[in-house]
């Protein structure tokens, strides 16, 4: 017991020494200074625009989004779906228009600035075009805020099958990720990513518009599965593109760490999309295969039944009549 008491005493002294070594106030000041430094480094062109003074508002909206998703996912299981067909149609049309503006504006701005190469130099040689590109990327960041409503609409309409890990991860992280891109790196390289993603969302929301008109239009959206493939292709192209920037050391405001973050973020999306695609479409293929087998089995049984009836009818016809 004395040995145990002595060891406990030594352990207590060791803990006290560790606590004295850790200066919590100093660490708190370091974190505050780091936060202030990043806030002061925000692009001057965008710093006074809505939501751009700090990431706090964007982070709070994303956190509130997650809370709303958890609440509605539980709450709507006890209630009937809310009819929002017209609201959702207007929302999808609005998102098509907004993403088309971003897509076309990026192309026009890059053309006017003669920024054709993979190593974008729009941030160095053309202040007017750089300012325009900042505006466009800010609008693209705003689209990511509007995209959060899509999840809310799904839940209010009790479309729980649309809510999965890929959907939640994508929507909850894209909004703050694009705040960072807009605040610090709104240049030609980031614009290339926005260009691809806006084109994808034009196609995606067009699919939602067509599908909202009912079963009679289902034959026109046979290409639904290719949207998921396009999503995966988009992130694969982004990985290759930013790997190219990393390899060639292009002169752009993106730091090497930021490029690696983008690559890792894209890899996570590729893994989630691939998992979703295999689970969803292989399940449909298996279901169709099982359905085909059941139909074939039914046809065989039906043919056997018809053959047996034909045999009985013919036998009756050949039976001799008794006087």
Automatic annotation (TrEMBL):
Any single GO CC term annotated in Swiss-Prot or TrEMBL for this entry: endoplasmic reticulum membrane
Keyword presence, Transmembrane: yes
Major localization class: membrane
Enzyme class, broadest EC rank: transferase
Entry keywords, A to Z: Fatty acid biosynthesis, Fatty acid metabolism, Lipid biosynthesis, Lipid metabolism, Membrane, Transferase, Transmembrane, Transmembrane helix
A single GO BP: fatty acid elongation, monounsaturated fatty acid
Keyword Phosphoprotein: no
Similarity field: Belongs to the ELO family.
Entry membrane topology: Multi-pass membrane protein
E.C. designation(s): 2.3.1.199
UniProt subcellular location: Membrane
Name of the featured protein: Elongation of very long chain fatty acids protein
Pfam families named among the record's database cross-references: ELO (PF01151)
Catalytic activity line of the entry: a very-long-chain acyl-CoA + malonyl-CoA + H(+) = a very-long-chain 3-oxoacyl-CoA + CO2 + CoA
Transmembrane segments: 55-74, 86-108, 136-156, 168-187, 193-214, 226-246, 258-277
Gene Ontology molecular function: fatty acid elongase activity
Native organism: Brachionus rotundiformis
